[in-house]
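Input chain follows. Return structure tokens only.
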Amino acid sequence: QVQLVESGGGLVQPGGSLRLSCVASGFTISFATMSWYRQGLGKERELVARVSSGGYSTVYGDSVKGRFTIIRDNAKNTVYLQMNSLKPEDTAVYYCYAPGRNSWGQGTQVTVSS
């Protein structure tokens, strides 16, 4: 059974950092493209970052380029999203997604506020 479990969300002040984790089970991420999406209140779900199966190719949403980094740890079957210089507009529920498995995690809330 394919499962993605996110963690690491919370409340952070503007300019702060958070690191989200997505632990996969039921499949090996080594051969999978992995993604992070987010959905703010009343907004469409949008791509935040994506990393290819080999880790050689990454794609970032325009609004997070230079601030967020997607990292994969195949040994731990885990994908991370390192978020720096957070802004109030980054407030959203963040989801892990494995396109090849069409599988979503349950999401983790990130709130950026003073």
